[in-house]
Amino acid sequence: MSTPAGAEVPRRPSLTEPKIYRPFAVLAFGGSVLVGTPLGMWLLAWLHLGAPAASVDWWLLHAGIQVFGLFGTLIVGVAHHLLPRFTGRPVAASALTPWLAWLLGAGLGLRGAAVVSGAAVLASAGALAQSVAFALFAGWVWRTLDAPPLARLRRHLAASSAWLAMACLLEVVVRIAGLADGRPIPDLEAMRAVHSIALLGGVIGWVSGVLLRAGPMFVPGWQVPRALVVLVPWGPALAATLSAATLLAGPLAAARLARLADLAALGTVAALVVSSGALRRAPRALPMLSRSRAEARIFRLGAVSALVATLGAAGLALGAGAALPHHVLNDALRHLVTVGFLTSVVVAMTFRLIPVLEGVALPWPGLRTVAFTALLGAVILRTAQGLAIYGWPGLGPAVVLSGMLAWIALAAVATTLAVVMVRGAILP
User: Fold this and answer.
1) Where does residue 88 fall: left (phi above 0), alpha (psi -120 to 50 degrees), or beta otherwise?
2) Domain that holds residue 185
3) Which of 63, 218, 362, 392 lies in the 20 to 30 Å Cα band around 57?
4) pTM score of the predicted model
């Protein structure tokens, strides 16, 4: 029956499931949209357009907000809804949940305060707060996934959470060692190892573990071979171990180990998305609730980015034996992973989960197309950074534009979340 003109369309009754993810999503997207991604845009403008120089502190703040603030914090929030679904238990906050939100929020705030105030010790305190949060979270994951059929997933996700905690703890050690030597700026090679451990072992570990079970949320016909299911957890773990080993190696050996770490994690992701059928045209099937082509396109963009990043990591690994790879190529590869793969997965998953967790339709479904288009442009232009350095200086402004496009994609998700939360607070 059609609705008369001017009549109010009844809202779908809200779900009884508590919205545990909300404070974590606010921290994650708020920190990235308001601080982390704009900082990245400024840093690109400094590199390619001669904007006012940024100190190393700002570089490290950008990385910290994106790695631990966006990806790490969002993992903690969404896990409170995904893991109960894996175990068949009702979604409920534990006594630990508010402490996790406070610790992660304090970590972000202390990192920012350290740069603004110049008190470097605050950054150490922020990293310590986040280390405690991720360690407590790893214990929660282990206790929650206690069903025997989930033993492999339990080890995988608990270890990935522990890598996040260990990365933050290693950052505390690196920063305190620098302060003890009278250096307020921590050792940059050690900080690269910190971020690699967190990204490759922690974030990619979590994403690959969740995709083993939740891949059908995005791609019909998703099916991972049994042998690969057994091997997937080892890729991120090996990558994190190799990243940690760079701290004990000389410059040339450290470069080799770092490239092999990238290859271990990205190769695992590439094998996962290819073997699962994520890039194949799926046969017609009944649609899954709330899954749409828009989200599948965003997810496939992430899958293609992972494949390209794997090829790039392989190329750099082969070249690392002769000379140290150019830092700009390393930076382009890292952002192909963070922007192309991880951000695409985050955007697709958030758009997919909002209707499920909130019990309402997306207020502006067209923002998914905006996000996809912006991410596609960001990936293409950001990857051109290597060409901008090697003989194509005219591409500099385009590389800077990539930061704006990445911001638009994240802002599209943040806007959707904000509207849904505000409507839920105002309307019955």
Assistant:
1) left
2) 22-279+290-426
3) 392
4) 0.89
